[in-house]
Design goal:
The complex is a heterodimer of chains A (200) and B (268). By secondary structure, chain A is mainly alpha-helical. Chain A is built from nine helices and no strands. The longest helix of chain B is centred in the first third of the chain and has 28 residues. The chains are: A mainly alpha (200), B alpha+beta (268).
Amino acid sequence: MLKTLLSILLASVIVNNYVLSKFLGICPFLGVSKKIDQATGMGLAVIFVMLLATAATWPLQTYLLAPNGLEYLQTIVFILVIAALVQFVEIALKKYAPALHRSLGVYLPLITTNCAVLGVTLNNISDGYGFIESMVSSLGCGLGFLLAMVLFAGVRSRVEKAIPPVAFRGIPITLISASIVSLSFYGFAGVVDNLFGGAL
Amino acid sequence: MSQILFAAGALAAIGLVLAVILTLADRFMGIKTNEKEAKIRECLPGANCGMCGFSGCDGYAHALAETPGVKPNLCRPGGQIATEKIASILGVRAEYVEPMVAFVHCGGDCGKNGKKESYAGLSTCAGAKMLYGGEGACVYGCIGYGDCRSACNYQAICIENGIAHIDARKCVGCGACAEVCPSHVISVIPKLAVPAVACSNHEKGAVTRKKCSGGCIGCMKCQKNCPVGAITVVNNCAQIDYEKCTRCRGCVELCPVGCIEVLNTDLK
């Protein structure tokens, strides 16, 4: 059991990294990765929201949608629920944990309907994970997102200092460096499977 | 058909439940933000420069709204206009805000300052500074790679002829440039018609003279002749105390190397 969970966690952090190998959540990945502190804030907020969203949508799917034959409403219901949940959490945070709200608050509305968050919840269902497995997988995906953001913020601060040819300045060089970072993550493919003897 | 209706109905029901939850949450847990604070925040320029002594514009607006006795004239980028608006919101009297401007205390452009090395590293001042203080013969002056230009939120800085120039019309005096300058040649001074020393070199006169023809040689002429004693030569470089300076500009004519300039006589 523990072995499975560990392999799910590692696989979702490294091998199936949402940003770098599934290309979900590219918008915040390119938008908020200019500075490491902002990237970290965004990454932490994403972990938080992914865990919350999974905790809410997995029971919803298992106990409400699936028994009533409403699986086809999955996507739209998940969007609704996640958006409302994040808004609710924002209000609650503002009231009961203002310090946390100040550090995460800016990012929360940005990721209410982020595709990486929705993707995690949907993939957890389609991979047939149980509740604990789903939570671990969301944690892993969030950590993977944080890792990608922080790594890329570091890469980007180096790119800003360099002088690329005029045609490559700005977005093009950012996309090229993102693709190189993504390529480097391909080196991890198969590592986790071999580590755990194909437990996945 | 019935399936469509059922799906739509189910979604509408979920939406309604969520809406009710959110409304209740806002009613019972919502925090009323101070109306004054939001209004004051709108008057502030949003530069988040920290010149007011609070943590950014939000912090200053919060302090103004919540703490009595915080003065409304602390925002330098906002200047007189912001102060008057804030004072009218708070219902207090506006006090005069002296408009400020950043000034580069260096006149050693390519024609005046000699070269001592050829630098080909990172094109930032901070990088060049680390390698023996940059290309120029004078290690105290402006390096001219424009770290200040990147730090400026108002596009008020341009690099011309190897040194930074500040456009006083755009500059709001927030001092963001002064913070990033690795040579510390930028300071924030009163904006209108003041004399300013365009040199930061602290070496002896003869040494300065060999390196840069525009540098302050510390001859003390300005210090001796200033009628109000506003100028002191510290470590071979003249410094002006703007609390005392009467803007008479006598020093400008006196300076034998011409490194005291008058700022913005044309601005009102």
